[in-house]
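Thread: Newbie trying to understand structure tokens

Hi all, I'm a second-year student working on a class project, and my supervisor (Dr. K.) asked me to get a predicted structure for one chain before our next meeting. I've only ever worked with sequences, so writing a 3D structure as a token string is new to me. If someone could post the tokens and maybe explain what I'm looking at, I'd be very grateful. Here's the chain:
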Amino acid sequence: MSEAQGTTTPGRPWHLWLIGIIGGLWSSIGVLSFMLTQMNVEAVMSRFPPQQREYFESFPLWAVAFWAIGVFGGVIGCLLLLLKNRLAFHVLLASVIGAIGSNLGGLFLLGGMEVMGGTSALGFTVFPIIFAAFLAYYARAMSKKGVLS
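---
Reply by user tm_fold:
Sure, no problem. This is what the structure looks like when written as tokens:
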């Protein structure tokens, strides 16, 4: 609502900018990684050991779909957050589900644990999930406070 209608909506708090920009940049790195891997860019793929390259190239459609939802959902959700749109929470929640599906599914269902280096791969897997969950939680909190409309 607007001031002309007699009510005001909360402004954009400084931390919304911080979280939205950092989250968007982080998610953009994921989009870049996704695109370069899916387009099989030789300059990038040649840096992986043969076993890891084969692992990435053999992702089934469901894993690719979860990965895309995770990274693109993060970028779109952060843009919606910066625009103070209440749909940010729902898109960022989809991003969490995508991150869980692609990261944990890849490690435990597709044999990524062995290919990516055993338990050290868990750190690279858990952080994106935690960060995506934080972004969704933050968007939900901003929605409850009336910042997102």
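A couple of things are worth pointing out once you decode it. Residues 14-38 form the longest helix (25 residues). DSSP finds seven helices and no strands in the chain. Feel free to ask follow-ups in this thread.
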